[in-house]
């Protein structure tokens, strides 16, 4: 018998999306006694199949699109900006959302990230402060299960220790440490939502080293954890139910229903007292723009004209190098050391930097064979035939490799919002429901570009001090993207310059809220997931207190 995907009967809250934001809001509200329904566009993935998904991941030639059923008409998109934005490599539609394949790094934003205009005359201030989020950061760390240490002298004020101890530094971290000590660069542990000991009914990390794109042991947090908890408290989750549009009342003051379609092609109207959009900084503006009406011809909640505007995602600066000694013989799929020393800057430029000391794993034999010995390709397995060493020469090269001697440095620069960076509708291309697909227009901007140049110099200083030979550097004009999708429904007190209020309610509709990185005013240089989670918990408290 097929799954029941008929609408829930008169729920208090309808949540669109089941990533970390939607899952936490659903859990908190259902625990508080609300009747909650969650509409998820993608499927429910069987957790017992994650070993199979890992096997798919480690086979040469496979990518995230194979592992998490991404792609096809359902996931069509366009990219029209200066930098190509490969959306299907940075999202998963399904119960748990993109946390199914994220790395799991969970730093807090710093105080300065909320005060960019006041401190530097750049961008805009958030209408809330670090202190407003501080208790919710602590709660988010408890809910996700964050392992971290007390060795970071640059972290913003904290109220208690992390729920779990930090992971110890890797062997390659010790090689960086000597050079960084000479250069006066302080290294420290990395907060991450990965169990360093058993936590919340899940095991400690067992070292599969396939964190991206899949953690078979579930030691790394994913949002389906809180989806299950929400269901235990009575929430109902309807999967494979992509929302096509939102419908409002005659006065245009409230949302009445979310119209979704099921695999059999039928459409349903899910009514509720309150609606929360939690489907990410690309699909949220797309849904609002698709919900145009006579009352709102430019899309729902868009009286400011800013829905979809100020899209942000962090570019990445990487350098791969080689030492004349072994570096990492036992693969570790996540970093264990960073430096936030260059984050709280005094002058406006260069902007904040998060410096990451990567554990560069050796290529497996099949990958090395398919690459033809070429160190310059991007590692996406779409460049299989671009190598320059083949046959017997390739076999000799592989035999001569010996211990892994590779190193990799990665850094993320501060990303400022630009109005020209936006998510719009591409009306020339449609998805499997006949709707226009999202078009992402993305450019780096001068602030981030200047910061990236500074990062490259810093990386060279470290590798020169180590005596390393540089093998490959990322292209600063066409960088890889961190998959930190932010902006597009920014938060503010003025309805003319923002989409949602500080309580995350849309200015235009009194029962429509947004819980997503889309509400970020600025992007900082830190991974955003913990801030998204903290905002979700804050929203749940707001809805509970105003019941």
Stretches with pLDDT under 50, minimum 5 residues: 375-386
Backbone structural class: alpha/beta
Strand order of the largest sheet: 6-13-14-15-12-18
Largest sheet: 6 strands, antiparallel
Distance between termini?
37 Å
Q: Determine Rg (CA atoms, Å).
A: 23 Å
Helix content: 10-25%
Assess the beta-strand content as a share of residues.
15-25%
Task: Look at the structure and give the mean pLDDT.
Answer: 92
Shape estimate: globular
**Number of separate strands:** 19
Please report the number of helical segments.
12
InterPro entries: FAD-dep_OxRdtase, FAD/NAD-bd_sf, GMC_OxRdtase_N, GMC_OxRtase_C, MIP_CS, P2Ox-like
Protein name: GMC family oxidoreductase
Organism: Haloarcula onubensis
Cofactor: FAD
Which features characterize this protein?
single chain, 547 residues, alpha/beta, six-stranded antiparallel beta sheet, five-stranded parallel beta sheet, 19 strands, FAD
Description:
It comes from Haloarcula onubensis. Keywords: FAD, Flavoprotein, Oxidoreductase. Residues 417-536 form the Glucose-methanol-choline oxidoreductase C-terminal domain. Residues 12-48 form the FAD dependent oxidoreductase domain. This is GMC family oxidoreductase. There is one protein chain. The protein has 547 residues and is α/β, with parallel strands linked by helices. 24% of the residues lie in helices and 16% in strands. It has twelve helices and 19 strands. The protein has helices at residues 20-31, 50-58, 64-67, 116-120, 130-144, 171-183, 224-232, 280-290, 365-371, 391-400, 446-466, 529-545; strands at residues 13-16, 36-39, 78-79, 147-148, 164-165, 188-189, 236-238, 243-248, 255-261, 267-271, 274-277, 317-322, 337-339, 353-358, 406-413, 422-430, 436-441, 469-473, 512-514. Strands 6-13-14-15-12-18 form a six-stranded antiparallel β-sheet. It has a five-stranded parallel β-sheet with strand order 7-2-1-11-19, covered by helices on one side. β1, α1 and β2 (36-39) form a beta-alpha-beta unit. The protein is globular and about 70 Å long. The model is unreliable at 375-386 (pLDDT under 50).
């Amino acid at each position: 018998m097929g799954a029941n995907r008929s609408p829930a009967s008169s729920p208090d809250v309808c949540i669109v999306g089941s990533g970390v934001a939607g899952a936490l809001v659903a859990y908190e509200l259902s625990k508080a006694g609300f009747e909650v329904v969650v509409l998820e566009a993608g499927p429910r993935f069987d957790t017992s199949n994650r070993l199979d998904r890992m096997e798919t991941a480690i086979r040469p030639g496979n990518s995230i699109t194979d592992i998490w059923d991404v792609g096809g008409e359902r996931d069509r998109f366009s990219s029209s900006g200066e930098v190509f934005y490969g959306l299907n490599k940075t999202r998963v539609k399904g119960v748990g959302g993109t946390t199914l394949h994220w790395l799991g790094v969970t730093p807090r934003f710093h105080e300065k990230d909320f005060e960019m205009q006041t401190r530097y005359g750049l961008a805009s201030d958030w209408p809330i402060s670090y202190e407003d989020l501080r208790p919710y950061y602590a709660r988010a760390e408890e809910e996700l299960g964050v392992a971290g240490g007390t060795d970071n002298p640059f972290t913003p004020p904290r109220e208690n220790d992390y729920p779990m101890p930090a992971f110890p530094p890797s062997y390659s971290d010790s090689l960086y440490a000597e050079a960084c000590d000479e250069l006066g660069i302080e290294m420290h542990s990395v907060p991450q939502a990965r169990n360093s000991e058993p936590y919340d009914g899940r095991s400690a990390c067992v070292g599969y080293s396939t964190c991206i794109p899949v953690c078979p042991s579930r030691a790394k947090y994913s949002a389906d954890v809180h989806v299950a908890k929400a269901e235990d408290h009575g929430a109902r989750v309807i999967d494979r139910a992509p929302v096509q549009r939102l419908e409002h009342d005659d006065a245009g003051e409230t949302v009445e229903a979310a119209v979704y379609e099921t695999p059999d092609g039928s459409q349903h109207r899910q009514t509720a007292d309150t609606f929360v959009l939690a489907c990410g900084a690309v699909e949220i503006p797309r849904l609002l723009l698709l919900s145009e009406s006579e009352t709102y011809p430019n899309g729902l909640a868009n009286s400011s004209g800013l829905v979809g505007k100020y899209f942000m995602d962090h570019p990445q600066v990487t350098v791969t190098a080689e030492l004349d000694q072994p570096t990492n013989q036992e693969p570790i799929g996540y970093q264990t050391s960073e430096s936030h020393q260059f984050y709280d800057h005094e002058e406006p430029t260069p902007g904040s930097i998060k410096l990451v000391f990567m554990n560069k794993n050796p290529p497996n034999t099949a990958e090395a064979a398919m690459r033809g010995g070429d160190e310059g390709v991007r590692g996406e397995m779409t460049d299989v035939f671009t190598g320059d060493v083949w046959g017997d020469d390739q076999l000799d090269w592989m035999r001569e490799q010996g211990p892994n001697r590779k190193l990799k440095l990665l850094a993320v620069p501060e990303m400022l919002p630009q109005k020209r960076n936006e998510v719009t509708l591409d009306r020339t291309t449609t998805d499997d429901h006949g709707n226009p697909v999202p078009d992402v227009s993305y450019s780096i901007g001068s602030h981030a570009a200047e910061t990236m140049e500074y990062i490259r110099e810093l990386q060279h200083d470290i590798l020169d001090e180590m005596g390393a030979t540089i093998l490959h550097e990322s292209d600063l004009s066409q960088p890889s993207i961190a998959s930190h999708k932010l902006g597009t429904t920014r938060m503010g007190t003025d309805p003319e310059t923002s989409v949602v209020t500080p309580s995350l309610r849309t200015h235009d509709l009194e029962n429509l809220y947004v819980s997503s990185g889309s509400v970020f005013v600025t992007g900082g240089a830190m991974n955003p997931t913990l801030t998204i989670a903290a905002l979700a918990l804050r929203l749940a408290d707001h809805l509970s207190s105003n019941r």
